[in-house]
Amino acid sequence: MASINLLHKEYVIEQGNFLKAGEASSAIKQILRQLGVSAGVLRRVSIASYEAELNMVIHSFGGTVSADISPHAVVLEFADTGPGIEDVELAMQDGYSTASEEIRNMGFGAGLGMRNIKRCCDGMDIVSSAGGTKLTLTFLV
Ligand SMILES: Nc1ncnc2c1ncn2[C@@H]1O[C@H](COP(=O)(O)OP(=O)(O)OP(=O)(O)O)[C@@H](O)[C@H]1O
Ligand SMILES: [Mg+2]
Prior knowledge:
Layout: E1 7-14, H1 23-34, H2 39-59, E2 62-69, E3 73-80, H3 88-92, H4 101-105, H5 113-120, E4 123-129, E5 132-140
Helix pairs in contact: 1-2, 2-5
């Protein structure tokens, strides 16, 4: 049986826009808080969505984040338009980063974002090609 979808939201993420970076994650967190989602789930969604959003701002050409909230799960889909992750397994490893010097000077690029995302979610799926990356995260509520 298909599960009931309470809410569907979409946000546009712009490449290199550090002024807006984190806004989609904050908006999702706010909605979940209003829905009465537990503090533990809120924290896990916040960390993972912030890391994934920042990865889109820093490493991709931009794209969209969609949030589907049902009574039992929160599913976030981060879909960007490229350049893609050449080696997903490598990208998942702690300390691996292709961040530039400029980005590192801003405090990013430790290569720990993907690890943090994995730690915080209940399901993580990555499909990537030169045309873009689709990261799907599932959180059980
Ligand atoms: N959406 C994406 N598009 C293209 N490459 C990506 C994307 N997300 C991650 N990557 C690649 O995976 C690498 C590892 O990502 P991860 O988030 O772990 O580290 P980081 O973003 O480099 O540093 P940190 O998250 O610790 O600030 C990135 O350096 C980048 O090469
Ligand atoms: Mg990152």
